[in-house]
Amino acid sequence: MTRTTDAVVVGSGPNGLAAAIMLAGAGLAVRVIEGAETPGGGCRTAELTLPGFRHDICSAVHPLAAASPFFTQLDLPSLGVTLATPKIAFAQPLDGGRATWLAGSVDETAGGLGADAGAYRRLLGPLVRQAPLILPDLLAPLRSLPGHPLAMARFVLSGLPPASLLAKRFRTDEARALLAGAAAHTMLPLTAVGTGAFGLMFMMIAHAVGWPVVEGGSARLVDALTAELAAVGGELETGHWVRSLADLPPARTVLLDLTPRQFAELAGPALSARQRRSLERFRYGPGVCKVDLALSGPVPWQAAACRETGTVHVGGSFDEVARSETDVNAGRHPDRPFCLVAQPGVVDPTRAPAGKHTLWGYCHVPPGSSVDMAARIEAQIERFAPGFTDLIMARSVRTAADMERYNPNYVGGDINGGAATLRQTLLRPTPRWNPYRTALPGVFLCSASTPPGGGVHGMCGAGAARAALADLAR
Ligand SMILES: Cc1cc2nc3c(=O)[nH]c(=O)nc-3n(C[C@H](O)[C@H](O)[C@H](O)COP(=O)(O)OP(=O)(O)OC[C@H]3O[C@@H](n4cnc5c(N)ncnc54)[C@H](O)[C@@H]3O)c2cc1C
After folding, report:
1. How many CB atoms lie within 10 A of CB 251?
2. Centre of ligand 1 from the C-alpha of residue 417, in Å
3. CB under 6 Å to ligand 1: residues?
4. What is residue 296's predicted lDDT score, i.e. its pLDDT?
């Protein structure tokens, strides 16, 4: 007898799979429908350059997975996932062979910040001590009541000033650049409200759990999720692009691992003009241009700290990073872009043949850009690691426009499922009390466009699954 479907999940990114696991774990018959030939969305690994060189196509560094209540309860090691955590969470080279870095405890990092040691301890110390209370609230919808209001209030007060103002607490290039690199993950000008809070959150997570990569590649996380889904009875179908909600198999509930724009397209006339307008108000952020390189050896960073970390923020001083983000948000392609670089081989020798390395790097670009920034990214790395370009054996480049072709969730190349503005941090995707519900009864959004936003943590999927289960229980 054919099994009837209780829940359909469209899209098998980390959030779609997290939602499906929670629904199937609650006893529902779940079917995940994925358009691409392989599951995983932004969490896949492939030989993009040469045989034996395994590159993370999208996500590579997983502090959010390490901090995520969803992944913690899943017990990743029992599912064959090893998080390889470098001693230095992230580093940022500065001119003159110097670098700034975040490693281990607040005291250890403060020790590398000279005259700013005290200011760093005062800013990060209390937050890191309370990280176990604060992080679960940051990885939940911010419009729900925090579990630990006092700890959360301290975090909000500390992170209220934009990164440009927070940086004024510091006197050294090192401390200011460290903050800039963490805050620039938002893709916003560093004068924007919210950039301070995001910067502090990434630094707090780095002290609390580190910035690991997944041994063997990010796809191992998705292998674990699909194995868990099968174990709880869920089904996964790949190679099936959903064009309309009307084409879905009948089900009691539907969860969409899609952004608001795609939801509006798939829903078609089921949405009123007013409901459609509400979705159209959702704002996407800048795009990224990404380069993957096969290297004949490790990157010859001048600064030792950059050789010992998996993540290098490349862009120089606070002012240079800030200028790069301002340019991108004004529609310009920076000549000297701020680049996010991962070198997983520092802690995971399985990524490339013996002695060789992979390098993952991207910079922010205006939305929809088809400009190839590889030469500018490589020039920035060469600036701090002379001789680097001589090591390049092969490269693969994806512009922002390519990103969207690869995965329609990356609208204009925006890898975070929507701009990280203050409004959208608090009220993404639309200002409903329950952020996962849509205007269509029984239809939920579960992608990174919902709280808590972009990154591989599965918490958007977990939140949407809880909302769907609550509705079904009524
Ligand atoms: C270059 C890059 C670097 C990144 N780096 C990091 C990082 O280091 N660390 C980190 O934590 N995060 C990183 N991210 C972000 C992270 O990958 C995403 O936030 C995360 O994957 C979002 O998960 P999701 O499940 O919401 O959506 P996605 O992972 O985007 O999954 C959506 C899925 O839905 C499918 N789909 C879309 N439309 C349809 C349709 N009509 N029918 C059927 N299927 C459909 C897609 O094929 C896709 O598989 C990065 C992303 C990119 C692109």
Report:
1. 18
2. 8
3. 10-16, 33-36, 41-43, 58-62, 64, 241-242, 257-258, 262, 288, 290, 362, 403, 407-410, 415-417, 447-448, 454-456, 460
4. 98
